[in-house]
UniProtKB/TrEMBL annotation:
Residues 6-70 form the RNA polymerase sigma-70 region domain. Belongs to the sigma-70 factor family. ECF subfamily. Residues 101-153 form the RNA polymerase sigma factor 70 region 4 type domain. It comes from the Bacteria. InterPro entries: DUF6596 (IPR046531), RNA_pol_sigma-70_dom (IPR014284), RNA_pol_sigma70_r2 (IPR007627), RNA_pol_sigma70_r4_t2 (IPR013249), RNA_pol_sigma_r2 (IPR013325), RNA_pol_sigma_r3/r4-like (IPR013324), TPR-like_helical_dom_sf (IPR011990), WH-like_DNA-bd_sf (IPR036388). It comes from Actinoallomurus iriomotensis. Keywords: Sigma factor, Transcription, Transcription regulation. NCBIfam families: sigma70-ECF (TIGR02937). This is RNA polymerase subunit sigma-24. Residues 171-270 form the DUF6596 domain. The gene is rpoE. GO terms for molecular function: DNA binding; sigma factor activity.
Amino acid sequence: MDLESLYRTEYGRCVATLTRVLGDIGLAEEAVQDAFAVALQKWDQPPPNPGAWIVTTARNRAIDRLRRESTRQARHAQALLLHQPDEPQEVGPVRDDQLRMIFTCCHPALSPLAQTALTLRLLGGLEVGEIARAYLVPEATISQRIVRAKKKIRDAAIPYRVPEGAELPDRLAPVLTVLYLVFNEGYASTSGELLRTDLCLEAIRLARALAELMPDEPEAIGLLALLLLTEARRPARVGPAGELVVLAEQDRSLWNRELIAEGHELVRRCLRRGQPGPYQLQAAINAVHTDGPATDWTQVLALYDQLLQHVPTPIVALNRAVAVAEVHGPAPALAIIDELDLPGYHLLPAARADLLTRLGRTADALAAYDEAISLATNDTERAFLQTRRARLA
């Protein structure tokens, strides 16, 4: 594995660990970045445990910096703390640095955009430009939000911990959101290759930890089911040459049946509770996709009808339109899509191009493909759209 891949894989874990040790996200980030710079100079090849090497080096760099910058009294106190051979007993319900990091980043004192941007930066190791493209906003906007969020955490002394039991339900929604976004970034990366498996697996691991922490929260169970059922299809999502393979063309024998069985069981648990929510409904949709040799689109459409009531957003309406096309044909689906406003979102003109193709409106379909190609930032998705357009032309 090259250093760039290691950076993406290990950055979030190392920053989370150093934040626990140092108690300062900004200092932890700087120390980890310094450690990777040292690795770039010293490594001919990565050591057996590169993450541990980065954490140790970053910790030592942080100690050196504190020695230089602190007063004599504070320096001795900090050095004693950092050199303690045995870590103090962790206070709180879990011992998971990344989960603590998510709850810290999702503190209600921060805005929703700041919460997700900071988590994607710290946990996923995404660059500011990648996050900006994912949110369709200027890079400067994301950069400012991240800087302000870290300052807010420091100035307000927001604790680096998972909240106590009574506080957990009120803090759940943004945590679910950022886990969902981290997984999505792994499943359809903003740039580069299509998949970042490390992010998908990390999001699932954290979703499991959250479901264990909050076993009576149906939306936590629903999110875990959704991620498992989506991850189950990943082996069939790219072809031998790395090309994108859409759901209808995937080889279902490649799907992970163990994950599907676990996901279906979790969906049944959610159904028995009778408290449907957005993640449970999305999990149910994916359960239908993975149940049997073909998708029952009538069931999918009925579930999207419910989901749209819970989350009346243009993206949900777009996904519902895809189901409408399968059940009622492309014309009514196109009528729905033409009413949607999603500037900069490449999947809207991509879906429109597909429907126009099915309606025989070739010139309009080609124009829609051109728009989708110009908006796509992921290399694999762009290549897929170019292939579809060439085939049509």
